[in-house]
């Protein structure tokens, strides 16, 4: 019964952070319209979120077992609750930067704690993979919900309106609910650290993980994957608005198809991975992603603005292109589960720290590149460029599989104990 309450708490936390983290694309569109900032200036919001995630993860991931996972999650929720309240009270582009800075710091604490807690609740790699896929599926349900939640507060008839900021009162209430739920839940965190080690030894043990071929191939794969996901996800609302000529609210709603694909793909991936080996599944997914980009982007050419546009006469590309999320979905949970389930429990916090760091770097890089190309050329060119990292991750996963099958897992599991 207590494990179920812990899982409910983790799902609630991941749900609200999914909305906040993946609202970057929506907020980019809104700050451009509301505050008149340029696309390149708006693209820094991804950096305000991701760079703190990387820095804080690097500094604290190895120390969280000492601090306590539950305490870390409560601290993260408290930080973002305050940031959400500030958004409508102090409207401005700088407040949006402060919000994502706070979300980045908080998520660095939360993600390491959540992933490490999954290791405490599961037994064996299959159960771990199933739990990670379910957790990431809930995350994507949160992303999907966020698109519709934000769109409900957007005034398409008045692009400069600040009415959309009222969504943060709702988000603050959800954060407060998750805080109360977690605070009332007991967690047994024994076995998450090695007794007799100092904070410095724990930190260097995390650094030493990077010495193993399996680990650095893994973090490269994570970096490239998140680069693709954030590059597309963060700029899809703007692509819908400027290239496909959809109204602002509808642009955000149409982008939710991308999140829906990710959610369905991840929730279904657990069942698929129990029957099929992860490597061929991911190869098929990557090839399908590339094919979808090549076949769909030509459909977005020369779209004419239609003042009477609705869901029945919208460009077909608005429905097909976001389906790339369905094929993208299994990649991230699969490689994370392969990596984490190969390690003893006390190393999960350190490894998750590396995961979060390189995820953050990949997200920032993807958004900045896409935003810069979008501004210099157009959205079609920016999205065509996703074919390059798709090819790179296809190659990196080949070497990742070779490292796993070559016995590097066992060597990594014995490292720095």
Briefly say what this structure is.
It contains 20 helices and no strands. With 417 residues, it is mostly helical.
Write the layout of secondary structure elements.
Layout lengths: L1 H20 L2 H12 L3 H4 L1 H17 L3 H4 L1 H21 L3 H29 L3 H27 L15 H17 L15 H11 L3 H30 L5 H28 L2 H19 L20 H4 L3 H5 L2 H10 L7 H29 L2 H6 L2 H19 L2 H6 L4
Helix pairs in contact: 1-7, 1-8, 1-9, 2-11, 4-7, 4-17, 6-7, 6-9, 7-17, 8-12, 8-16, 10-17, 11-12, 11-16, 11-17, 11-19, 13-19
Beta-strand residue fraction: under 5%
Cα separation of the termini? 32 Å
The whole-angstrom Rg is 21 Å
- The count of DSSP E runs of length 2 or more, i.e. the number of strands, is 0
For the biggest sheet, the summary is:
none
The whole-number mean of residue pLDDT values reads: 82
Please identify the structural class as seen in this structure: mainly alpha
* Uncertain residue ranges: 408-417
Please give the count of helices. 20
Shape: globular
Helix content: over 70%
Helix/strand order: HHHHHHHHHHHHHHHHHHHH
């Amino acid at each position: 019964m207590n494990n179920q309450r812990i899982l409910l708490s983790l799902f609630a936390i991941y749900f609200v952070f999914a909305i906040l983290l993946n609202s970057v694309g929506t907020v980019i569109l809104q700050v451009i319209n509301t505050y008149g900032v340029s696309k390149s200036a708006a693209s820094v919001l991804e950096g305000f979120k991701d760079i703190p995630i990387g820095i804080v993860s690097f500094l604290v991931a190895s120390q969280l077992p000492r601090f306590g996972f539950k305490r870390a999650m409560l601290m993260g929720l408290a930080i973002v609750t305050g940031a959400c309240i500030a958004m409508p009270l102090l409207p401005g582009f700088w407040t949006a930067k402060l919000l994502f800075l706070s979300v980045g710091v908080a998520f660095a604490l939360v993600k390491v704690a959540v992933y490490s807690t999954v290791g405490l609740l599961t037994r064996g790699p299959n159960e771990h993979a199933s739990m990670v896929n379910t957790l990431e599926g809930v995350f994507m349900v949160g992303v999907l919900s966020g698109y519709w939640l934000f769109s409900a507060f957007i005034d398409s008839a008045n692009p400069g309106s600040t009415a959309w900021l009222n969504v943060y009162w709702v988000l603050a209430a959800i954060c407060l609910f998750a805080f109360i739920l977690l605070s009332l839940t007991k967690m047994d965190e024994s076995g998450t650290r090695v007794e007799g080690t100092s904070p410095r030894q724990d930190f260097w043990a995390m650094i030493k993980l990077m010495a193993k071929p399996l680990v650095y191939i893994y973090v490269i794969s994570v970096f490239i994957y998140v680069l693709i996901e954030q590059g597309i996800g963060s700029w899809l609302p703007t692509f819908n608005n400027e290239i496909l000529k959809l109204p602002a609210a509808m642009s955000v709603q149409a982008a939710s198809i991308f999140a829906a694909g990710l959610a369905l793909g991840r929730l279904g991936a657990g069942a698929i991975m129990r029957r099929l080996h992860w490597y061929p599944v991911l190869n098929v997914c990557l090839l399908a992603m590339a094919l979808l980009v090549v076949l769909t982007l030509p459909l977005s050419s020369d779209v004419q603005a239609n003042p009477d546009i609705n869901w029945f006469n919208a460009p077909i590309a608005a429905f097909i292109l976001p389906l790339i999320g369905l094929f993208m979905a299994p990649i991230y949970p699969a490689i994370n589960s392969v990596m984490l389930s190969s390690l003893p429990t006390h190393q999960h916090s350190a490894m998750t720290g590396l995961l979060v760091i390189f995820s953050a770097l990949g997200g920032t890089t993807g958004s900045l590149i896409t935003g810069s190309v979008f501004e210099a050329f157009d959205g079609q060119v920016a999205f065509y460029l996703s074919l390059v990292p798709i090819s790179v991750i296809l190659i990196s996963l080949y070497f990742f599989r070779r490292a796993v099958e070559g016995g590097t897992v066992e060597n990594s599991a014995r490292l720095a104990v």
